[in-house]
């Protein structure tokens, strides 16, 4: 049985309050054992509507939990999906203030971002159509965060919580998606100067464009298109990396350049 509209709104309001107040909630899946992914998506839509009422504007979408290392780390074994807003976009090389940006328990992900030149409306979108609709790809740090206590999440928890998205950083490179083999592209991440993680594009469902096609088709089933100009985050190429004030992360993707971000209280 689907959750009632009243309960959907209550849970969405709780997540919104946790986002704005830097609080955490007990897992929704512990409190609503019959919750479905459809319920979770409706909760995320309510959360997004609250943010839009505050003046935030949707600038893209994201897929997460796409690679086996991330799935094993979180215990979630299927992708999640959410929305990006203009207030989530942080300049390359900037310092993220946990308090100012409302982060609670952040972790850094290195991934490939797709910026679209044409709309995509799923279902039925292929990897080839994703590449044809992409203006450029860029290296990206996504800083994921969770309003669920201690990251004790199931798929319904993270979908409801806007795919555990915090903020994101796009590198300066603007690369033609046909200019390199995205599946073979190798990423390295350094934290405070030390190499701590690496991965390749194939870690994301075999190819980053395959992940983006999945997202287009999944959101398309809910009537949500990808729009020209939107930023689509394709998922982490390596395990999530906890971040605390004072940390500085740098990443480089072969043939694509890099990005960097720092953290402060």
Biggest sheet overview: 8 strands, mixed
Care to count the β-strands? 13
**SS-derived structural category:** alpha+beta
CATH class categorisation: Alpha Beta
- The H-level CATH homologous superfamily, spelled out, is Fumarylacetoacetase-like, C-terminal domain
Mean pLDDT: 95
Q: Helical element count?
A: 7
Globally, the shape reads globular
Domain count: the total is 1
| Rg, alpha carbons | 17 Å
Q: Helical residue percent?
A: 25-40%
Spatial separation of the terminal alpha carbons: 43 Å
Question: Which architecture per CATH?
Answer: Alpha-Beta Complex
Write the layout of secondary structure elements.
Blueprint: H1 5-21, H2 28-31, H3 37-53, E1 58-64, H4 68-74, E2 80-85, E3 89-90, E4 95-97, E5 107-116, H5 127-133, E6 134-144, H6 155-160, E7 165-170, E8 186-191, E9 194-200, H7 208-220, E10 231-236, E11 241-242, E12 248-253, E13 257-264
Parallel strand pairs: 1-10, 3-7, 4-13
Antiparallel strand pairs: 1-2, 5-6, 5-10, 5-11, 6-7, 8-9, 8-12, 12-13
